[in-house]
Amino acid sequence: MMSSLPSITSDMASEQRLSVERRQEWGFYLVSSSRELLQHIEGLMNRDGLFGVMDSEGRVHYLVDARKGYPYAARQICSTAGRLIKEQHISDSNGTRKLEDAITIVLERYDFNRNLRGYRLLFSMLKLVVPDKSLLDPISKRLYPKIAKLYDLTANQVERNIRYLFVDLCQRELATKTRPQDGQTRSCSLLKEGAKTLPSAETIRRLSNEVRRIWHTRYKDA
User: Fold this and answer.
1) Non-local CB neighbours of 41 within 8 Å, separated by 6+ positions
2) Coil vs helix vs strand at 109
3) DSSP structure string for 38-54
4) Per-residue confidence band for 3, with pLDDT thresholds at 50, 70 and 90
């Protein structure tokens, strides 16, 4: 009998990803004995698009006393929702910027040709796989299609661009080893000792691990 653990792990990772990508919603309980007042509140919130749907997925909900009148309740809801949405936006923006900083630090260790399309694709790949390792298993069926959709390419085009980027890096690193340039700072090497190629999936995994270490130690809890 085959174990279902890999499938469960994959489903959990997918659910986590969907939770991150899902639009933020803010819900409020209204306390009032007036049906007309509640209808006023509902109309205002629906008009402004701020009244969230209540659910059981752990979202934070607020209790607003509407007995002081619907203008007061509406102001309280709008003010609270606006503040929370702004805080969430700032947090998301800071998190993305810190992740991009960590990716830049890692990629600049190596002599990549930054003019190649594959470099931009690799950068975007790392933005996805550092928070979600499951996209690496298997990379050709999960990560490549996502990047292809993002850049309006096919998965095969993504794979070719990434492979060419790594082939180009190999040539640069091998050339540096055979003809070291005195007086210039040498980049780190992604090629393992004695190796002449960089397998795409393995190399992306190695780079993502480097980025993840920096992201967690320098930025994640900052």
Assistant:
1) 30, 32, 66, 70, 73, 74, 77
2) coil
3) HHHHHHHHHHHT--PPP
4) very low
Report how far residue 208's alpha carbon sits from residue 133's, in angstroms, rounded to the nearest whole number: 9
What domains are defined for the chain? 24-94 (no CATH), 108-220 (1.10.10.10)
What tokens does 194 get?
């004695």
The model carries a pTM of 0.58
Backbone angles phi, psi at 37, to 5 degrees: -60, -45
Packing angle of the helix pair 155-178, 200-214 (nearest 10 deg)? 80
Q: How far apart are CA 222 and CA 217, in angstroms?
A: 9
Residue pLDDT, tens place only, 152-182:
899 999 999 999 999 999 998 888 876 655 5
Q: Which residue type occupies 110? A: Y
Token code pair at residue 134: 């499951």
- Residue 15 tokens read as 């659910």
User: Tell me: the pLDDT tens digits for 42-55?
Assistant: 565 555 444 444 44
